[in-house]
Amino acid sequence: MSKYSAFAIARQAFQNNTGWKRAWRNAQPKSRYDVVIVGGGGHGLATAYYLGKNFGITNVAILEKGWIGGGNTGRNTTIIRSNYLQDPSAALFEKSRDLFETLSQDLNMNVMFSPRGVLMLAQTEAEVRGYKRTVMANKLQGVETDFIGPERVKELCPIMNINGPRYPVLGGQWQARGGTARHDAVAWGFARACSDMGMDVIQNCEVTGVDRANGVVTGVRTTKGDIACDKMGIVVAGHSGALADMAGFRLPIESLALQALVSEPIKPCMDIVVMANTVHGYLSQSDKGEMVIGGGTDGFNNYTQRGSFHHIEETVRALIETFPMLSRLKMLRQWGGIVDMTGDRSPILSKTPLGNCFINCGWGTGGFKATPGSGYAMAELIATGEPAPLTEAFGLERFKEGRFIDESVAAGVAH
User: Are 404 and 396 in contact (CB under 8 A)?
Assistant: First the structure.
């Protein structure tokens, strides 16, 4: 793999950019692998990467039914934060946020990580109490967050109206080291690094069945032929239930569409991320100048990746009171992604009833921020076969035992 650098860019400039090689090999499946990862999104690619980096397991295939970055990885609003209430959640998301800080160097790919800060607005007294509680929990967890007053909120985001008639801003939870990253670049960087290790990144390869014998996975059936494997990881976000059904077990999740939109590009006016949970919306400005706007999930189960008018109306109407300038902007584009939601709004990283089959799902609407941390933890689970500190609380058995990790409030805007 050629190294990306300023010198490489200069050298290619003199060659009319004709010397660049493919970022990753266009691999065809072999008959057998040590590990097959089903799902070529950020979490699946990160799992494969850390299997190779941390455990030396490189006879790995990553199977993607579409193209790399074509699913939720390329359809989210790029927010990165770790200010969660429960200890297991904070540990996992903080590990991920920490890995994001050096990810560009680790992958030799500029993922455009921008630690611009994430602000979660408190617009009711209940939110003030809830965020102060979370800040105290974060301090015990070693996660840097603060509760700030409305004057500081206005200083951080001058375009905000903090004296709204329905929901004035009473303060906010501020994580200065949160921010955003380029979602496509994260997926491309992991794919490139996996390919460089000798792993096979196989696109347009849909899994149609799971082979098993004596209660253990033996391989998968795909649109590109049968592939045998010793271990399998299911990392397919909103389609987790469908893959689990193929493997012979059920999951306590539901699949929903999450929608977002961006405005036309405008001059820089906002350099932080703001989440307004009471009015139900969140907002940031991209490097191209677009205002990136997101809200909650659809109110019914579905697998659509389209947007709908009622969500534009609900989300934008909710944000305009706090951000009046949005009323003058035109919408550039809108999209949807399929998210898988658990009852406690926390993910599943677990062994499954099928031996040597592991699953990573249930991230709901906040999966992107966990990409490297999820892969790091899932790789350890697959390599060792047993839960580790980052994953032991997120097992499937917690739903049977009633050990819920309730993040329905800290997740914010179902995020």
Answer: no
Gap between the Cα atoms of 415 and 410, Å rounded:
9
The answer to whether residues 71 and 335 touch, using CB atoms and an 8 Å cutoff, is no
Q: What is the DSSP letter of 2?
A: P
Please indicate whether residue 303 or residue 371 has the higher confidence score (pLDDT). Answer: 371
pLDDT tens-digit map of 61-109: 999 999 998 888 888 899 999 999 999 999 999 999 999 999 999 999 9
Cβ atoms of 233 and 61 within 8 Å: the answer is no
**Is 206 within 8 Å of 65 (Cβ atoms)?**
yes
Judge contact between 270 and 396, C-beta under 8 A.
no
Q: Please tell me the distance from the alpha carbon of residue 339 to that of residue 301, in angstroms, as a whole number.
A: 10
For the entire predicted model, the pTM comes to 0.95
CA angle 98, 104, 105 (to 5 degrees): 95
Nearest to 123 by CA among 163, 155, 152, 159: 163
Res. 415 pLDDT band, cuts 50 70 90:
very low
Q: Which residues contact 5 (CB under 8 A, 6 or more apart)?
A: none
Q: Phi and psi (nearest 5°) for 263?
A: -90, 175
- Other beta carbons less than 10 A from residue 245's beta carbon: 12
Rg (CA), the chain: 21
DSSP notation for 170-185: -EEEEETT-EE--HHH
